[in-house]
Write a structure and sequence with these properties.
Blueprint lengths: L3 H15 L5 H12 L3 H13 L1
Length: 52
C-alpha cells in the first residue's frame, strides 16, 4: 500500500514524464525558469490558497 508521500511522488513523476521530461531535475529547472519558483513552492502556494 502506498503512503501519501509515496503517492505524491508518483503523481509528480507522472506530471514530468507526461510533460516530456525524462527526469525530475530537468523538469524542475524548466519549471523554475518559466514560473519563477520551484514546483514544490508552487504546490505549497496552491495549498495555502485552497485553505484560505
Amino acid at each position: 500500500m502506498l503512503k501519501e508521500e509515496d503517492l505524491n511522488k508518483v503523481n509528480f513523476m507522472y506530471i514530468y514524464t507526461a510533460s516530456g521530461f525524462s527526469n525530475q531535475v530537468t523538469f524542475n529547472r524548466a519549471f523554475k525558469r518559466i514560473e519563477g519558483i520551484t514546483p514544490s513552492e508552487y504546490i505549497k502556494n496552491l495549498n495555502v490558497d485552497t485553505i484560505d
